[in-house]
Structures are given as C-alpha cells and as structure tokens.
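Field reference: "sequence" (input) and "structure" (output). Example, Guanine deaminase:
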Amino acid sequence: MAEAKQIMPDVLSIARSVQPIMLKSNNPQLQLPGEERKFVLVIMGTYYHTPTYGRLDVLRDVVLVVQEGKIVRIANGHEETEVQEEFGLAEVRQLKAGQYFMPGFIDTHVHAPQYQFTGTGTDVPLMEWLRKYTFPAECSFQDLEAARHRYSLLVKRFLANGTTTAMYYGSLHLQPNLVLVDSIERLGQRAVVGKVNMDRLSADDYIEDTADGLRDAEEFVTYTLGKKCSRIQPCITPRFIPTCTPELMKGLAEIAQKYGCHIQSHISECCGEVNCVREMHPEYASDAAVFEEMGLLTNRTVMAHGTLLSDDDIRHLARRGTAVSHCPLSNFMFGDAFFMVNHALSLGLKVGLGTDVAGGISPSMLSAQRMAVVNSRCIRAHKLAVSGGTTVTPEMEKDVITFKEALWLATVGGAQALDLADVVGTFEVGKDFDALLVDTNLSGTSGPFDVFEGEDDDQRFEKFINLGDDRNLIEVYVQGVCVKRGDEFLLDGSNVSVKATEDDSDRIMSAPTPVEPEAAYLDLAHRADSSDEAASVDVGAAAEQSEPPTKRSRF
Ligand code: GUN
Ligand code: FE
C-alpha cells in the first residue's frame, strides 16, 4: 500500500475516497489505459444472488475481483493469497460478519418526473389520474432549473434504495429529458431512458405535433448515444396507445429500428385503458395487436403492467422477445386485475419488476418485491374465494411466489427484460459489478430490524429482503464504482445527500395544482369505464385469437 502511494499519490488518494480498496495491479494484462483502470477492487466476503428462478445461491467467503468495472475472478477464500499475488495486491478487504453483497436492483418501470408526487394523489382511476395529477406535474419540468434539482433528488433516492439500473420514462418536452440523462450520467446510475411521446388525447399544453414528436424523439436518441456512456441507453417511448396516433407509433418504431433502441410503453393495464383502445381501434383484438401492427414489439421492448393480456397476447409477446414489467403496487392502485407472474413465465414471457413511480407509491424495489409476493398470495386467495371451498389445491398454489422468486424478478428478470442479461443481475465472471453492500448489523432504532442470537447468514439476508430498507445499504456500486457510501453520493460534485438540506427546502417543489379533468377527455375515460357489454374487457374472447391480427388502421 505504501509503495502504491509513492507511485501515484494523487490518483490513489482520489481512488481511495471513492472505493474501499482500489489497489494498483502489477499484472501487465490488467494495465488498461486511463489511471483509474489500473486499479482493481477486491473484496472477500459472502455474496447472495439468484441465477436460477426460485433459488437463492450463496457464494460464501469468496474473493471477488473487479477490474475496469467487470468481475474478472471469483475465488475461494482459501485462495486469497494466490489472488493477492496474481493481482499484485497489498491487501484484500474483508467484509464484517453480517455484511453481504447482492446484485443491484433493476427497476423496469419508473416515471422520472412523477417522483415529486409519489405517495400522493391516488384517489381517481388511471385515465383521470393522468389528467389531474400526472400531465401537469410532467409539464412543469419545462423549468429546467427545477428539472435539474428534482432529477438529482430522484436519481439519488433510487440509488439510495439500491436501484442501480432503472428504465425511466421522462416527460414530453425534449430539454428536460436531456437534463434527466445528464443527472443519471453524473451520479453514476445505469439506465435506459426515454422521451415520452404523445400526439393526441392529452392536455392542450402537454401534447406534441406528430412531426415535432418524431424529430424530438430522434434528437433525444442521438443526444444520449452521443454521450458514449455505456451505462445509459436511449429508449423510444410512446406513452400508451390512447395518446399516440398510428402515424406517431409507426414513426417511432422506425426510429427504434434505425438506432437499435429499446422501446417502452404500457399494455393492457386496466379496464379504462383497454376499453379506450377498443373504442379507438375496434379493428384490433387487443393492445398487443395494435402494438404488433405499429412495429413496436421487439426483443428490446418492455411493456408495463399487462394484467389484462390474454394468453395468446402473452405468447405473442414472448415470440417477439418483448418483456412485461410487473408493477404489483401500481396494479393494486390502478389496475383491475392481477398479473400472474408464474403463468406468464410458463408461457415463455420475459418478466421484470417495476415500481411504476408514481402509479406505485414507493420508489423502493424492496417494496416492489414484497408487493409481488403479496400480489401472488392474493391470486391464491381469489381462486379459493371463487371456488367457494376451504381447500387450497395445487392449482391455486401455482402463482404463489416467495421472496427468492421476487428477488430474481428484481435482478435477473429485470436484466433479461432490458437485454442486459449478459451484463448485470448476478455475480459471474465477465459481468459488470453492480452491487449493494447490505449491512444487517444495525441495531435498535438505527436499523429497520433486529437480529437475534443464533440467526445465521441466510436468515439475516432473508430478514433484510423482507424487513430491510435503504439504511441497510451502506455501499452502492455501478460498473465497479462505489457511487454511494453512507449518506455520500461519491460522484456528485456537490455531494448533496438524499436528506433534505436547507437549500432543498427553499426549493421544495411547488407541485402543480391538480386540474379538473376536461369534459372531452373525461367522457372518453368514462365511456371506456362503462360496463357496456361491447366495450367491457373480455380476456376470453381475445384469447380465442391465436395470433394478434394485423389489421388495417382506420387512420
Ligand atoms: N399509462 C399511461 N401513462 C401512464 C403513467 O404515467 N402511469 C401509469 N401507471 N400508467 C400509465
Ligand atoms: Fe407507468
């Protein structure tokens, strides 16, 4: 260590301020361009992850080596000395008892500009909620200084909660989305980010002309790609079918194809939305059929919700390689049906987990995992209730998931959904080190739970998943870089913590006043919500179609 200090005192002191152990490697193969790449991160301890759905694997007392952000070696603890020699290390950091690494969470559905009103305004159905709370809030991001401040808080809050990767929706206007990308880049998160597009059925001051929308979407893509930041990828984002003309959707699909971009939208989310689409596009059997015709179902598409997808819709998405973001909390708030995770997986669908801030009222992926477990038990309860009996049959158990499956959804499932399965989600040689250091030693009121004598590592880790929160996440890593330690965001020049500062309270966001929905818009939502037989959701009928029909658009 002393020798390394003599060699490069400045770089080492900077590196040590952001990394627990970053030592100069003497291995010539590991001497990469750029001072910071000459350092490796080596930590001995216990690592939990879920490479297989339903199984929690533990790498106990291993030495994990990270070079240039990637895991290059996972050795047994007794090989510590060999690893030390191989990498020319002066020392290896040892985790304390009760501390574990786990993969960072991957949130596959977040509305970045809705973070400001998360936890409020859930009193009305989805179509009205958009008009009353969401569009005004998103529109207010045209104030770029406010956007900068709010997005900084957003990214910090998500990182603090262990979300190392997020799939973000931005807002309609181009500029605030660039601020969002800048904030993500600056704070070190990994993300897939999209500028929202909508050219119909929105508020007068929150809608775009089709041609402008397409131009801005492409500009957003080229701006983001121009950063050449391997952590951040642009995404094409038609908000959902009701707010997008076929011309817009087809144009967006072309941009996605031109740049090989991800695509995100909402699909078969609730009765109001599904019925609205049926009225607008009676020639299509389902949302999936519309998206198919528009060219928006690709192996880089993530569709949120999907609670009202028929089995044939699910099979079709699976054939296209399209994923669904399961958002259990927001489905409870705004959906009318359950998303059946195990059933969808059994049909070959890729499934990730999402908070759907602010439709979901928590930015925490721990909360999303717990909600996914509760959601699955609600399905069992529902089946039992419908049976009218008191016997829980194996069929009723099928959709019940445990914390292990929920954790898989929050890590591996998300990675698969975002086409990042080779990059993140588990601890494997060749993958990037996106990881959370969990400390279960916080006692009394300094932590969210207590540990008792005799509880082993597995029990402590399970307690963290079920009871823990951001206090337990003492270090957060993205691409091998510690982006947060304790209250400090290490890549943030200003080093502002998530905790409110005086500066923050001065700028407490003047939340836009909720607007009363306009009659024309409400009419449509209400008609869509009506129990009129022709308009009502009939999943069975849709299921009869073996392939979503590709019919002529009426526009
Ligand atoms: N459908 C269209 N837009 C949205 C949104 O912002 N949130 C949710 N939950 N559903 C939507
Ligand atoms: Fe959403």
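The pocket of guanine (ligand 1) is lined by residues 111, 126, 130, 134, 239-240, 266, 269, 330, 334, 356, 359 (CB under 6 Å).
Residues 211 and 248 are 8 Å apart (CA to CA).
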